[in-house]
Amino acid sequence: MKKFLLFVVFSIFTFHVMAQEKVVQTAGRDQLGQFAPKFAELNDDVLFGEVWSRTEKLGLRDRSLVTITSLISQGITDNSLVFHLQSAKKNGITRTEIAEIITHIGFYAGWPKAWAAFNLAKGVWVEDTTAEDAKAAFQREMIFPIGEPNTAYAEYFVGQSYLAPISCEQVNVANVTFEPGCRNNWHIHKATRGGGQVLIGVAGRGWYQEEGKPAVEIHPGTVIHIPAGVKHWHGAASDSWFAHLAFEISGENTSNEWFEPVSDEEYENLRK
Questions:
Q1: 148-271 under CATH 2.60.120.10, yes or no
Q2: Where does the Carboxymuconolactone decarboxylase-like domain start and stop, copy by copy (predicted)?
Q3: What does the pLDDT read at residue 21?
Q4: Where in the chain is the domain with CATH 1.20.1290.10?
């Protein structure tokens, strides 16, 4: 049985049809079409074409979780597990989650099986591990927390940013962290009276630019005053994580107006 599972280690492709994900698999026919055509048909058309595609009953992420648990519990830690770990990553299971999943499995399926699975998972999530290590190192550089992914404003950013509210009394203050290369779109803080924003560099290196003016580097301790009505953007340098405190200045009829992203060409020219 373990050998048969090797035949399903080829790519699964998904596409959306009427808001339902359909899984297309060809590994069976590619590997066993001539030798075992019925097995190939069952593998491609039934297991993947029907069972995996029943996403209205159980999503791909959950199916990946169930499959990984089943394989590890049986002690199957060959290429078939690698394939399903890769699929799990594509289906949304994060590095932190897979570490917790395998740890949990270890208590029920056996510690050696968990060790073997971890050796494979580390390779699948290696890029995520590097990013997590860099994030953890950056957190040690500053006293303020990095916070959570800035999902509420993600559409106005190029790259990943994080938001940690620091205070909401008297003046709203937040710590905003940018991964290397991340920056927000051009925008204006609008107000009929008062308003605007103050930025104070906390850690790393970043950029601030007002429309029609050269960009200014931001380092820890750099203070940037942004009057209301000024079109601008700010973000990280391409080779550095960056964080700043953002102070929202009170005013009347305040709002933000967002514009186009900072183009790659504009951003690359900052280094010239």
A1: yes
A2: 37-122
A3: 56
A4: 2-127
* Closest by CA position to 241, among listed 205, 199, 216: 205
Beta strands in the chain, from DSSP E residues, in sequence order:
13-17, 20-24, 148-149, 157-158, 161-167, 172-178, 183-184, 187-190, 193-194, 197-204, 206-210, 216-218, 223-226, 232-236, 242-248, 251-252, 255-258
Sequence ranges of the chain with CATH classification 2.60.120.10: 148-271
- For the entire predicted model, the pTM comes to 0.56
Picking from 51, 79, 104, the residue whose alpha carbon sits closest to that of residue 87 is: 79
- Is residue 109 within a helix (H) or strand (E), and if so which, with residue range? helix 95-109
- Mean pLDDT across the chain: 85
User: CATH classification of 2-127, choosing from 1.10.10.10, 1.20.1290.10, 1.10.1040.10, 3.40.50.300?
Assistant: 1.20.1290.10
What whole-number percentage of the chain has pLDDT above 70?
A: 89
Strands 187-190 and 20-24: unpaired
Give the distance between the most distant pair of CA atoms in the chain: 78
263 exposed, middle or buried (CB, 10 Å; 0-12, 13-18, 19+)?
Answer: exposed
Q: Of 46, 59, 51, 55, nearest to 20 (Cα)?
A: 55
Q: What is the pLDDT of residue 129?
A: 64
pLDDT in tens, 200-248: 999 999 999 999 999 999 999 999 999 999 999 999 999 999 999 999 9
Handedness of CA 263, 265, 271, 272 (dihedral sign): negative
pLDDT for residue 11 is more than 50: no
Q: How many CA atoms does the CB half-sphere of 208 hold within 13 Å?
A: 18
- Between helix 95-109 and helix 111-124 the angle, nearest 10°, is 160
Query: How many angstroms separate the CA atoms of 270 and 266, rounded?
Result: 7
